Amino acid sequence: MYANHEPFNETGLIERAATALTQLGLDAHIIQPPADTPRLRLDGCLRVGKGDAQMTYAVEVKRMLTPATLGAATAQMRHAAEVTGLPGLLVTDCFSTPMAEKLRGQKQPFADAAGNAYLESPGLLVYVTGRKLKDKPVAATVGKAFANAGLKVQFALICNPALAEAPQRAIAAAAGVALGAIPAVLADLQQAGHLLVQGKQRRLNATKHFLDAWALDYARRLRPKTLQAIYATPSFDTWEHWEIDPAKALWGSEPAARLLVQHLRPGVLTLYAEKMPVRLLVEQRMQRVINASAALADGRVVELRKPFWGTLPADGQPGMVPPALVYADLLATGDSRCLETAEMIYDHCLARLFPAA
């Protein structure tokens, strides 16, 4: 909800965005999806324009977006656009100027409750940024499935969808969470439509929407807690030749993407480990960096992230985290190179298990 206690839902935020667009001199109306639109989860449809220049958008609502969650949000938006055949409109409370500039650079239409917007279609160009909300949004309450323990359970299910059929004790062990957390998490996943239950049988509703929803919440809540340290090394460019024991450390994010699809030249080397292996510290002459934020922005550093899972499937790619985590970490960077590579990871490694339709 907002500071003035206005209740939040998707339609309410779309209405606020439509009102803000109207105040810019545009026609903006919430409409029913066209009859020939494929059935899927849509937050709404909005018809926006001026005079004869009108466009109908498939709307994706994402509350309180940050640079870290923007990549996953746009991935969901593109999915909705591809399936419906309608251009996608991303709607949130308020887009910061850097986020607005990034979205415009990606040609991604957006609008918010503050009056910021980017729309570009035949006969119409709107770009407004820098406006702020008068009423500060308050974070919505999330269910157990979308808090940290729930996100770990979702990750375990994403890595091994068949785990949904297993006893709750096995799910807890794979996720690395307490057994007592499992019933509430599974109930929330069922209510959200991500877990299909018939009698005593459970099945994961494995879709790209579920994968992208997890990636967004992971970037918002769980990923910031995994960063342990940043290191500089003079042998950054020879990382593919480093000797790493997969029992102690796994490549993630950009280097894992490079190994999977041979496309991205890493700007940051991500390792998942409880601690940096002593052998690597010595052989690669690593020095810990104090100003982590600046170092990550400059690139060419090694980031150490703490594993957050219990056990991983034995049939995974050797020496690296599962492709779903590579995908989510790439989206969380917000970098255009990484976003492009994330889509390649999805196409090559995840589309079969998590189809778009």
Rg over alpha carbons: 21 Å
β content, as a range? 15-25%
User: What class, by secondary structure content?
Assistant: alpha+beta
Question: Mind describing the biggest β-sheet?
Answer: 7 strands, mixed
Helicity range = 25-40%
Beginning-to-end CA distance, first to last residue: 31 Å
Counting DSSP H or I runs of 4 or more residues, the number of helices is 12
Form type: globular
In round numbers, the mean pLDDT is: 90
What is the string of helix and strand elements? HEEEHEHEEEHHHEEHEEHEHEHEHH
Question: How many strands?
Answer: 14
Low-confidence stretches: 1-7
For the biggest β-sheet, the strand order reads: 1-2-3-4-5-6-7
Total discrete domains: 3
In a nutshell, what does this entry contain?
This is Type IV toxin-antitoxin system AbiEi family antitoxin. The protein is α+β, with helices and mostly antiparallel strands. Helix content is 38%, strand content 19%.
Task: Write up what this structure looks like.
There is one protein chain. The chain has 357 residues and is an alpha+beta fold. The protein has three domains: 10-128, Trna Endonuclease, Chain: A, domain 1, CATH 3.40.1350; 144-206, Winged helix-like DNA-binding domain superfamily/Winged helix DNA-binding domain (Arc Repressor Mutant, subunit A, Orthogonal Bundle), CATH 1.10.10.10; 222-350, no CATH class. Helices cover 38% and strands 19% of the residues. The protein contains twelve helices and 14 strands. The strands form three sheets. A seven-stranded mixed β-sheet has the order 1-2-3-4-5-6-7, sandwiched between helices. Strand 8 and strand 9 form a beta hairpin. Helix 8 crosses helix 12. The relative contact order is 0.12. This is Type IV toxin-antitoxin system AbiEi family antitoxin. InterPro entries: AbiEi_2 (IPR019238).
